[in-house]
Design a protein that fits this description.
The strands form three sheets. A six-stranded antiparallel sheet has the order 2-1-6-5-4-3. Strands 8-10-11-13-12 form a five-stranded mixed sheet, covered by helices on one side. The radius of gyration is 26 Å and the shape is elongated. The longest helix is centred in the middle third of the chain and has 39 residues. The chain is of the alpha+beta class. It folds into three domains: 116 residues, Beta-Lactamase (2-Layer Sandwich); 61 residues; 183 residues, 2-Layer Sandwich (Heat Shock Protein 90), CATH 3.30.565. Its EC number is 2.7.13.3. Keywords: Kinase, Phosphoprotein, Transferase, Two-component regulatory system. This is histidine kinase. One of its GO terms (molecular function) is phosphorelay sensor kinase activity.
């Protein structure tokens, strides 16, 4: 019988396996990794990893909390687990399918073996497409069916009777047609915006405005639209006036989208708090609700395109998952950031950080007066995918 493989031979075999393999001790320090693992991190000599923890590797951004949580789960349960993980390497996003297994000696866990399989862009896209196109079919079909059914109802009722006998029915039916037409228009606008964002063709008109009065006016107009019962937008600010540079139309879309999102995932107590304050030379806008909250898993992808494209049964939560992706694009185009904090059963808070800057603004901004006058229709459209 031949002798067993040497350490060098075993390492050579592991280097041939089309997986990224690593072994870390209970302190989280690397003890071993194969060449594919080190190469993905941009490291030529894998020995440079040994003795380091994940958060000690330059230019690599891990979700450290998730790593610790999954490590603890493997050690506690003494069994393997599988999940997906997003890692940023040199500012480039990678998605991996992770398998973690405990290395056990005398019933004690000595370390954790990790096997990582990169999910290619095509695989990720195919996965998104499957859910997205199912959801897209549902999103367009729902308002179109409502419009068709309403028209058929009107035709049947008005065929043999005077309009005056069904005036109330007529007015309600017209409103249903209008709302569902706006739903289709909103879907179309979102896809156009998302396509423009991908192609870098979104047009922004930056001017200097008072962001406090702008956000306050949006909140007041939503409060006064009268469409939703028990809806109350509470606006508060720590500053009376703040002139900064932003695109007024895009900011309106941002605020309306976040409020719409809060309404969708709120319970019967529809109180939404919108607050403006200064922090670290940034203008912060907080949109906070006391609704259902967002799971930790969902938070990781909340701003990704089509992140809401799972098959839903709850009709109140309409949307293809592109709204927050567009919000993120608009915020980042202002050189800002958006973050979310949430806890299941206690609500969510979206926080926008806008840079406190002004630009040389020689153009008069009277053009926005006309746009503002049509805000009621835009509010109706932005909130059209919410069912009472």
């Amino acid at each position: 019988m031949s002798e067993g493989l040497s350490i060098e031979e075993i390492e050579s075999v592991l280097d041939l396996i089309p997986l990224q393999i690593a072994y870390r001790n209970l302190e989280g320090k690397y003890i071993y990794c194969n060449k594919k693992y080190a190469s993905q991190l941009g490291i030529n000599e894998r020995e440079k990893l040994y003795g380091k923890k994940c958060d000690e590797i330059d230019k690599i951004i891990y979700n450290i909390n998730k790593i610790k949580k999954t490590d603890d789960e493997v050690v506690k349960r003494k069994t393997a687990i599988e999940y997906e993980e997003v890692i940023y390497i040199n500012n480039k996003k990678y998605i991996f399918e992770i398998n973690k297994a405990p290395i056990i000696d005398n019933n004690n866990v000595k370390g954790i073996l990790s096997l990582k399989k990169p999910i290619s862009y095509k695989e990720e896209l195919d996965k998104l497409k499957e859910g997205f196109f199912y959801n897209l079919k549902h999103e367009f079909r729902t308002p179109i069916n409502v419009i068709i059914t309403t028209i058929q109802l009107l035709e049947n009722k008005l065929k043999d009777f005077n309009i005056s006998d069904y005036e109330n029915l007529l007015m309600k039916s017209i409103e249903r047609i209008r709302i569902n037409s706006l739903r289709i228009l909103k879907l179309s606008n979102n896809f156009i915006d998302l396509t423009s964002a991908y192609n870098g063709n979104t047009i922004f008109n930056f001017h200097n405005y008072d962001i406090v009065s702008t956000v306050e006016d949006i909140c007041l107009d939503i409060n006064n639209c009268g469409r939703f019962k028990n809806l109350r937008i509470i606006f508060d600010t720590e500053i009376e006036e703040k002139i900064i540079s932003f695109d007024k139309v895009k900011l309106e879309r941002i605020i309306m989208n976040l409020i719409s999102n809060s309404i969708k995932f709120n319970d019967g107590n529809r109180i939404i708090n919108v607050t403006i304050y200064l922090k670290d030379n940034k203008v912060n806008i907080s949109v906070k609700d006391n609704g259902y909250g967002i799971s930790e898993k969902k938070l990781e992808t909340i701003f990704d395109e089509f992140s809401n494209s799972e098959k839903r049964l709850n009709k109140v939560n309409e949307g293809c998952g592109v709204g927050l992706a567009i919000v993120k694009h608009f915020v980042e185009a202002h050189k800002g950031k958006i973050n979310v904090k949430s806890e299941l059963g206690k609500g969510s808070e979206f926080i926008i950080e806008m840079p406190d800057v002004v630009i040389e603004d020689l153009q008069k901004n009277t053009w926005f007066t006309k746009i503002h006058n049509n805000r009621e229709e835009r509010i109706t459209m932005e909130l059209s995918d919410i069912y009472e």
